[in-house]
Amino acid sequence: MSIDPSEARKVAHLARIAVRDEALPALAAELNGILHFMEQLNEVDVTGIEPMTGVEPMRLKRREDVVTDGDMQDRVLRNAPDAREGFFAVPKVVE
Amino acid sequence: MTLNQLTIAEARDALRAGDVTATDLTHACLSAIDAGSPLNAFVHHTPDIALAQAEAADKRLRAGDAPSMCGIPVGIKDLFCTRGVPSQAASRILEGFLPEYESTVTQNLFDAGAVMLGKLNMDEFAMGSSNETSVYGNAVNPWKSGDAPLTPGGSSGGSSAAVAADLCLAATGTDTGGSIRQPAAFTGIVGLKPTYGRVSRWGTIAFASSLDQAGPMTRSVRDAAIMLGAMASVDPKDSTSADRPVPDYEAALTGDIRGKRVGIPREYRMDGMSPEIDALWKRGAEMLRDAGAEIVDISLPHTKYALPAYYVIAPAEASSNLARYDGVRYGRRAALAAGDGVTEMYERTRAEGFGPEVQRRVMVGTYVLSAGFYDAYYNRARKVRALIKRDFDQAFADGIDTILTPATPSPAFPLGSMQDADPVEMYLNDVFTVTVNLAGLPGLAVPVGLNGDGLPLGLQLIGRPWDEGNLLNHGAVLERAAGFAAKPSRWW
To answer: How far is the C-alpha of B389 from the C-alpha of B2, rounded, in Å?
Structure first.
C-alpha cells in the first residue's frame, strides 16, 4: 500500500489538519516511510489470535447512574477561545 | 552538599528530625532552578505555590503528621493538569489553558505534602525521544561530552534534566513507549514505569490511552519506591485504574534477591548493538548473579515486531485522543479569514497548533483507522500486541521473576543530530522499552555506569504485573552493586 499526494490530502482532511498543496508530496513520502516500517507486521502469523484490547482482563467498572458533579457552567466555559451567553461560540455553520 | 542535592529519603529523615524545614529545601531548589535556566527544564515556575505548600508541610511536620513525601520539592511534567497553572503538554495548541481541575497524580502528591516547584519541559504531547518537539524549545542534558549540547531524552526530558541537575528532588514523568526510562538512562537517574492501571490517568493529558502510565523519576531506587507509593491510588475517576490496594514499596527493599530468577532475553541482543551497551548488560547480569539470583537465558520471540506494532497502535489512539483539540473548548484558536466556516477553523487551528511530529502521528493514526485499512494495520497490530504480551506471560509462567535488558541502544546524543534523519530512526530509541508498554508491565531504568565519553548508561529491569515491590528490590540490588555515584559537572 502506498500513499500518493492526493491520498495524503484526503488523510489530512480526515484529520482536520490544513496542509498546503506544495507540502503534500513530502507528507506522502514521510507517511509512506512509516507505513513501510509497519509492513513488517505482515511477517507475523496471527491466525486465531484475538486483537488485544487491554492489558489486564478486567470488567469495566460500573457505578450508580446518578449525577456526581455539575453546576459549574462558568468553569466549563472559562478556557473557551470564544464563549457567549453560556455557550461555546463557533463560526457560522451553513450547510 | 546543598539541600537541593538530597535524595527524598535523606530529606524526609532530615525534615522529620527537624534538621531542615520544607521552606529551606524549597528555597534551595528555587535558587537552583534560577541558576539552571540554561537547561530549559522548568518552563512554568510556581514559586508562590511552592512556598505556600512548604509552609503547610512544615506545619504538618511539626504536628507529627508527615507522610514520606511531606515537604519534598518536586517538578511536575507539563502533561499533568494542575489547577490554575499552565498545563500545555508542551504544545502551542494548549497555549493559555489553565485547568479548572487537578490531576489525580498531582492531587495525591499534594495530599501527601509534596511541594510543586513548577512545570517541566517535554516533547509535545509526549511524542518524541529527545525533547526536541517541544513548543518551549529543547531541554538540555546536564551531562556533556565535548561542546555539543546533548538531549536529556524524551519525552520526559525536562523531568530527567531537572532531577539529574539537582533542580528538584524528584519529578513526575509519563511513559507511553519509554518516555520515563529512556530519559532516566540518558541522565543517570532512576525512572519507573508502573504496571498499566497502577497510577490513575485522570487529569493527565492523554497520548495513547492503552499505553500511557505515569511514574516517578528520582535519584535513587528507594526514592522511586517512596514516590510511587504517593502517586499510585485506586481512582474511581479512571475506569482503568486497578482495584488493588497500594502496598508499601519501600518495605519491599530488603536487598535480598537470593534464589530469584532473572531472565536475559536473547532477542534484545540486536544486530549492530554497541559493544559498550552489551558489556554493560553482561556486567549487570553478573551483579545480580553475585547477589544470589539465577541468570536464565529466555526467549521473547516477537520482540522485533514491538516497534512497528507500537507505531500503529499509539498513533491510532493519539489521533482519536487529540481530536478534542479543535479550537472550541480550550486552548488556542487560529485567526480566521472572512467567510471561514467551522471546518476551516478546525483545520487551521490544528495546523498552527500542532507541531510537525504530532501532525505526522495524528495523520498516521487517522490513516490506519480509516475504512479499508483498519484490519490491515490496526487490527493486525493489536493481534501482534497480544503475541508480545503472551511472550512475557510465558516467561513469567516458567518462573522468571524479573527480566534484565539494556534501557537504550545508545547514550544521550547531541541535540539536532537527528534532524535530517527519517522519523523511524528516532523511533528506534524505544526499541528496548516499548515492549513493556505493549504488555502493560512495570519497567525500571537504573543507572549502572559511564561510557568511554563519560556519559551515563542504564539498564532496564522488567517485572511481573503488579510486582513493583520485587522489581524495585532487584533495582536496589543492582544500584548498590553498580555504585553509580557520578554527577554531571556543572557548566550552567
So the answer is: 45
B410 touches A at CB < 8 Å: no
Residue B381 touches chain A, beta carbons under 8 Å: yes
pTM: 0.97
Residue B248 is which amino acid? D
Q: Do B57 and B66 meet the contact criterion of CB atoms below 8 Å apart?
A: yes
Give the CA angle between residues B169, B173, B176 to the nearest 5°.
160
Task: Give the DSSP H/E element, type plus range, for residue B24.
Answer: helix B22-35
pLDDT at A1: 60
Write the burial class of residue B304 (CB in 10 Å: 0-12 exposed, 13-18 middle, 19+ buried): middle
Local structure of B396: helix, strand or coil: helix
Q: From the list A3, A53, A93, which residue is nearest B342 (CB)?
A: A93
Residue B435 backbone dihedrals phi, psi, to 5 degrees: -60, -35
SS3 per residue for B345-382: HHHHHHHHHCCHHHHHHHHHHHHHHCCCCHHHHHHHHH
Copy the grid coordinates of residue B411: 547514550
- Which residues in B lie closer than 8 A to residue A23 (C-beta atoms)? none
3-state secondary structure B103-117: CHHHHHHHHCCCEEE
Active site residue B134: no
Reading the block at residue A78, the C-alpha cell is: 472559562
Q: For residue B238, what is the nearest residue in chain A, using CA coordinates?
A: A61
Res B229: pLDDT:
98
Q: Which residue stretches of B306-341 are H helix?
A: 306-321
Nearest to B136 by CA among B77, B202, B84: B77
Q: Which CATH architecture has domain B3-257?
A: Alpha-Beta Complex (3.90)
B155 is catalytic: yes
DSSP state of B405: E
Q: How far apart are CA B401 and CA B293, in angstroms?
A: 10
User: What residue spans define the domains of chain A?
Assistant: 5-42
ipTM of the complex: 0.95
Per-residue model confidence as pLDDT tens digits over B450-490 = 999 999 999 999 999 999 999 999 999 999 999 999 999 99
pLDDT exceeds 80 at position A56? no
Q: Which of B91, B155, B160, B233 is catalytic?
A: B155
